[in-house]
Design a protein that fits this description.
Layout (H helix, E strand, L loop, with lengths): L9 H10 L2 H7 L3 E5 L5 E6 L2 E8 L2 E6 L2 E6 L1 H8 L8 H13 L14 H6 L5 H20 L9 H5 L4 H4 L9 E5 L2 E10 L2 E9 L2 E4 L8 E2 L12 E5 L2 H11 L7 E5 L6 H14 L3 E4 L5 H13 L6 E4 L2 E4 L6 E7 L3 E9 L3 H20 L8 E7 L3 E9 L3 H18 L11 E3 L7 H9 L4 H50 L2 H25 L15 H7 L14 H7 L10 H13 L16 E9 L8 H10 L6 E2 L3 E4 L5 E10 L5 H16 L8 E4 L2 H12 L22 H10 L2 E11 L8 H12 L2 E2 L3 E4 L4 E11 L5 H13 L3 E4 L2 H27 L1
Parallel strand pairs: 11-12, 11-13, 13-20
Antiparallel strand pairs: 1-2, 2-3, 3-4, 4-5, 6-7, 7-8, 8-9, 10-12, 14-15, 16-17, 17-19, 18-19, 21-24, 21-25, 22-24, 23-24, 26-29, 26-30, 27-29, 28-29
Length: 865
C-alpha cells in the first residue's frame, strides 16, 4: 500500500519532473508541436506567436522561451508561469494541478535519442573551447559582412524618407555611422547595427513591408552617439523599441528639450541580455534621466514596467577579492510583468524583516488596488492573489485584461516610488530618474507621420482612436479567417473521410454486383437513347446529326460509362448511325417506334413490291480481342445490337483461341430488307466496316462478312426505306395520323414546347456565404426569363467545386431571344458548359433571331412613322 503524499514532500517535485511529459502537458494548455528533431530529442511548441523549445536535461525535460531567455525551466516552472489559465500558480497549486494531471493517466511515451556512450566520449580528445568560440565569432562576422559589406555606409535614404525622417535628422552627429545601406544583388535595405561590449553583435534590416534580424543571439542593442558628439557627457538616455522610433523621437522632441541625449533601441521585445547591457551603458554614461519611449500599447507598457524594476542609476564599482564589481542596491520590492493573448500579469515580491512588515507592505498595495477597482464603473478589474508568504518574503500576482494593462503600469510606478522609500537613505535614487514618454498615436513614427500632415495634437489623438479601431477590425477579420480556415479544413477532412467510406462501400461484393447490373441496364439504353436524342444536321451533310464533335461530346456525356466496355466511342457510333427523329421522346413513344419497326407493315407512303415477306439475310460479325487472355468484346457488341430497338436479331457467340492466346469470336445478325428501318441497319453495317478498314483503333479487330449480292439488295432497299437516318419528319416514324387543320396547326405552333438544358460550372471552391460563378450564372439565367433549378455542388480533393443546375424554357416565350443570348454567353464563359440537344439549340436560335428581326422592324416602324 502506497504511503499518502506529504503536502510539501520535496521528492514529489522530482517525481513530477521525471514522470510528466512536458510536451504533452503543454499541448493540453493550447501549445502545438510545430517542429521536432529527427530522433525526437527536441520539440518546438507554439501558441499565440510564442515559441518554446523543449529538450532533455539529465532525467527530465526542460523548456526555453525563444523570445525571453528568462522564461525557462522544468515542468514546475512551466506550471508556475502558465498554469491557472495563464495567470500562474503558486507552488501549492502547482502540486495540486500536476497531481491531477498524473491521475488522468500516463502521458504518451516519447522516443528520445539514446544517451551518448560515456566511455567512448571519455576516450575522445577534449575540444578546444576557444576554437568553438572563434568559429561562432567567424560565423557572426560573415553574416554581418554579408549585410554591411567590407565598408559600411548609408547610400540609399529612400526608406527613411518614406518613414518621414528628414535629412537633418539623418545627418545629425548622433546617428553618423549608426545607419547603413545593405545591398544584396539588386535589393537595397536600410540596416541598423546592434552592438555589445565586444563590438558588432547583429544587424537589423528594414524596408517597406520587410524586417529581418540576423539569426544570431539577441545580445546587442542599437545605440546612437550623444547628440552633442562623441565623448560628451550624457544627460539623458532614451530607450525605444526600434531605431526608426528613436529617429522619430529625436525629430519631434529634441529641439524642444535639447539635452545631450543618447538613443537606445532593442529591435522589438527586449531580452535579459539587452536589459543588462542597457544598465551597463547607464553605469558608464551616468545620465541624470532615463526616458522610456516605447509604444502606446499593452506590449510597450509591459516593457516599461519591467524597465522600471530592472534599470537603476549608475552603480558604483567596489573591490571584490582581486577584482572589481558593480555594487547592487538592495531590492525591498521587485516586480515582473508577463502577458498572454488576453491578460497581463504582474508578479510582485516583497522582501522584509518580519511577517508584520510584509503584511503592512502588502496592505498598502491591496488598498491601492481596491481604490482603483472602486473607481471603475464595471466593478473590479485588477485581480490580486497572494501566492506565497513567509517570514522574509511575500509574493503576489496581479492580473488584468490585456486592454487594461495601463492600470498595472500605474501600480508599477507606485511600486517604484515605494521601493526607493524602503531602501536605506544612502541607496535611494531620485524618484524621477525613470520617466515614461508616450506618443500620442501608437508609436513615435506614426506621430511623426501625422504631424507632417499638419495635424494638431487633438487631431492626432482622434486619428489614433481610428487607427486602433482599424487594427481591432483587422484582428477580428484575421480571427474570423482563421476560424473559417479551421472549419474548411474540418469540412475537407469530413469529406475525405466520407469519400473513403464511400470507396469502401463501393468495393463490397454487393456494390460491385449492383454496378454490373447498372452497367448492363446502361448498355441496353445507349442505342435506344441515341435513337431518341440525335439532332438534325444544319450544314447539309447527310447521315450526320451533329454539327461538331463538341456537340456530340456534350450529348453523349451521360453515356460515358459505356466506354468502359472498350468497344467504341459512343459519339462516333451515334454519328455513324444517327436516329430517325429530331426531338426527345418518352419511353412509351420509343416502344411504339420499336414495335412499329419490328412488326408493322410497311408504311403506305413507301412503294415496295407486294407479295410474300422478303427473304431473311445474314451478316456475320467477326470480333477479335485486342490483347491475349481477354474476352467480352463480342458479347458487348452483341448486347448493344440486341438492345438497339431495330428490327434485327443476333445468334449465339462462337469463339476460338489461337496459339497466341487471342480470342476470335463471331455471331450472325439476321435482318430483312422489307423492314421500315432497313436504311439504319444498312448504315450500321456499312459504317462499321468503313471505320475498321480506315484503321480506327476503337474498331480494331471488327469486321462484317456478307455476300456482295446481299449488300447491293440492302442498298436498294435502304434508299426507299420509310425510316432514314437523317429524317426529321416524325410522321414517317410512327403510324400515320390525320393531318391537322390550319387552325389546329396555328394553335399548336403558337403553344410552343418546353425545352430542358443542363448547365455545369467548374470553379475554385467558395467559402461559406460567398457567391461563386455558379450563383452568378443562375442569376443571369433567371434574369433572362428562363427557369433555373437548385444548384447541386460537390468539391473534389483539389479544391475544385463542380456545380450543376437544370434550366427550362418554352419556345413560345417572348423573351426567348434574350434567353438564347444568355445561354450562348454562358457556354462561352470559361469553366461553364451548356448541355442541350443540338436540335433544341438550333430551334431556339432560329426563333430568337426571328424575335430580334421582328423587334427591329417594330422599332424602325416607330422611328419612321
Amino acid at each position: 500500500m502506497n504511503a499518502p503524499t506529504r503536502e510539501n514532500d520535496p521528492t514529489e517535485l522530482d517525481r513530477f519532473k521525471r514522470d510528466i511529459d512536458l510536451v504533452d502537458y503543454a499541448s493540453r494548455t493550447g501549445y502545438e508541436v510545430t517542429r521536432e528533431g529527427r530522433n525526437g530529442h527536441w520539440h518546438q511548441l507554439e501558441k499565440d506567436g510564442e515559441k518554446l523549445i523543449v529538450t532533455r536535461k539529465d532525467d527530465h525535460q526542460v523548456y526555453l522561451n525563444v523570445g525571453d531567455d528568462r522564461d525557462k525551466g522544468s515542468v514546475i516552472d512551466f506550471a508556475k508561469t502558465r498554469g491557472g489559465d495563464g495567470s500562474g500558480l503558486n507552488l501549492g497549486q502547482v502540486r495540486q494541478e500536476l497531481r491531477e494531471y498524473l491521475n488522468d493517466g500516463p502521458a504518451p511515451v516519447r522516443q528520445y535519442a539514446q544517451a551518448p556512450d560515456v566511455s567512448r566520449l571519455n576516450a575522445l580528445p577534449v575540444g578546444d573551447p576557444g576554437h568553438e568560440r572563434q568559429q561562432e565569432e567567424d560565423r557572426k562576422t560573415r553574416l554581418i559582412t554579408e549585410v554591411l559589406g567590407v565598408r559600411g555606409e548609408l547610400t540609399d535614404r529612400s526608406y527613411l524618407h518614406g518613414r518621414g525622417i528628414d535629412d537633418t535628422t539623418i545627418d545629425s552627429p548622433a546617428f553618423q555611422g549608426r545607419i547603413f545601406t545593405a545591398q544584396q544583388n539588386e535589393h537595397k535595405n536600410t540596416a541598423f547595427p546592434l552592438y555589445n561590449e565586444q563590438g558588432l553583435a547583429s544587424v537589423e534590416q528594414k524596408n517597406e513591408h520587410y524586417k529581418n534580424l540576423l539569426p544570431l543571439p539577441k545580445n546587442g542593442i542599437w545605440v546612437s552617439h550623444p547628440t552633442e558628439g562623441k565623448e560628451t557627457p550624457v544627460a539623458r538616455i532614451v530607450v525605444s523599441e526600434s531605431a526608426v522610433d528613436s529617429l522619430s523621437h529625436y525629430q519631434l522632441k529634441h529641439e524642444k528639450d535639447a539635452k545631450n541625449t543618447l538613443y537606445i533601441a532593442t529591435s522589438g521585445t527586449p531580452t535579459e541580455a539587452q536589459v543588462a547591457l542597457i544598465q551597463r551603458v547607464i553605469d558608464k554614461q551616468e545620465p541624470k534621466e532615463i526616458v522610456l519611449a516605447n509604444d502606446r500599447d499593452a506590449g510597450g507598457r509591459q516593457f516599461n514596467m519591467n524597465y522600471m524594476n530592472e534599470l537603476h542609476p549608475a552603480r558604483p564599482m567596489v573591490p571584490v577579492a582581486d577584482q572589481e564589481a558593480y555594487k547592487e542596491a538592495s531590492r525591498p520590492v521587485e516586480w515582473h510583468a508577463t502577458s498572454d493573448k488576453y491578460h497581463t500579469g504582474l508578479k510582485v515580491s516583497y522582501h522584509h524583516d518580519s511577517a508584520e512588515n510584509g503584511a503592512a507592505q502588502v496592505q498598502q498595495l491591496t488598498d491601492r488596488v481596491a481604490k482603483m477597482n472602486g473607481t471603475g464603473e464595471s466593478g473590479p478589474t485588477i485581480e490580486v492573489e497572494v501566492q506565497r508568504s513567509t517570514e522574509r518574503e511575500t509574493v503576489l500576482r496581479l492580473s488584468v485584461a490585456r486592454a487594461d494593462t495601463a492600470q498595472l503600469e500605474v501600480i508599477s510606478q507606485e511600486l517604484y516610488r515605494q521601493r526607493e522609500q524602503l531602501r536605506p537613505e544612502q541607496e535611494r535614487g531620485q524618484e524621477t530618474f525613470i520617466r515614461v514618454d508616450y506618443p500620442i498615436a501608437k508609436d513615435w513614427n506614426r506621430d511623426l507621420e501625422l504631424t507632417a500632415q499638419g495635424m494638431s495634437a487633438e487631431q492626432i489623438r482622434a486619428q489614433a482612436v481610428l487607427d486602433e479601431q482599424q487594427r481591432a477590425a483587422e484582428r477580428e477579420q484575421r480571427r474570423q479567417q482563421e476560424e473559417q480556415q479551421k472549419r474548411d479544413e474540418q469540412e475537407t477532412r469530413r469529406q475525405n473521410d466520407e469519400a473513403q467510406k464511400q470507396r469502401e462501400r463501393d468495393n463490397t461484393p454487393e456494390a460491385q454486383k449492383e454496378r454490373r447490373e447498372e452497367d448492363q441496364r446502361l448498355n441496353q439504353a445507349v442505342v435506344g437513347a441515341a435513337v431518341a436524342d440525335t439532332g438534325s444536321p444544319d450544314d447539309g451533310r447527310q447521315f450526320r446529326s451533329y454539327r461538331s464533335e463538341q456537340e456530340a461530346a456534350e450529348h453523349t456525356a451521360q453515356f460515358v460509362h459505356a466506354k468502359d466496355a472498350g468497344l467504341v466511342l459512343l459519339k462516333e457510333y451515334i454519328n455513324d448511325n444517327p436516329a430517325p427523329t429530331g426531338r426527345k421522346v418518352d419511353e412509351a413513344e420509343q416502344e411504339e417506334l420499336r414495335s412499329r419497326a419490328r412488326y408493322a407493315e410497311p408504311a403506305a407512303a413507301i412503294t415496295l413490291p407486294t407479295g410474300p415477306p422478303a427473304e431473311e439475310k445474314t451478316a456475320t460479325w467477326k470480333i477479335d480481342e485486342v490483347a491475349a487472355n481477354t474476352t467480352g468484346r463480342a458479347e458487348a457488341w452483341k448486347e448493344i445490337l440486341n438492345n438497339s430497338g431495330y428490327s434485327m436479331q443476333t445468334s449465339e457467340v462462337r469463339s476460338t483461341v489461337d496459339e497466341q492466346g487471342i480470342r476470335r469470336a463471331e455471331f450472325d445478325m439476321k435482318y430483312r430488307n422489307d423492314q421500315p428501318d432497313i436504311a439504319i441497319i444498312h448504315a450500321i453495317l456499312t459504317n462499321t466496316n468503313a471505320r475498321a478498314e480506315a484503321g480506327n483503333e476503337k474498331y480494331a479487330g471488327v469486321s462484317i462478312a456478307e455476300s456482295e449480292s446481299d449488300r447491293a439488295a440492302r442498298q436498294a432497299a435502304a434508299e426507299a426505306a420509310a425510316i432514314q437516318p437523317h429524317n426529321r419528319d416524325r410522321s414517317q416514324d410512327v403510324a400515320e395520323k390525320p393531318a391537322p387543320s390550319e387552325k389546329e396547326a396555328a394553335s399548336i405552333s403558337a403553344q410552343g414546347s418546353e425545352k430542358q438544358v443542363v448547365i455545369k460550372v467548374d470553379e475554385p471552391a467558395t467559402t461559406v456565404g460567398e457567391r461563386g460563378q455558379a450563383e452568378a450564372v443562375k442569376a443571369a439565367i433567371t434574369g433572362s426569363g428562363a427557369k433555373a433549378g437548385d444548384i447541386q455542388s460537390t468539391t473534389d480533393e483539389q479544391g475544385i467545386r463542380h456545380s450543376e443546375m437544370k434550366v427550362s424554357y418554352r419556345t413560345d416565350q417572348p423573351e426567348l431571344a434574350k434567353i438564347s443570348q444568355t445561354l450562348d454567353a454562358v457556354a462561352n464563359q470559361k469553366g461553364s458548359q451548356v448541355i442541350e440537344h443540338s436540335s433544341d439549340r438550333a430551334e431556339r436560335k432560329d426563333i430568337g433571331r426571328g424575335q430580334e428581326i421582328s423587334l427591329n422592324r417594330t422599332r424602325t416602324a416607330e422611328i419612321t412613322r
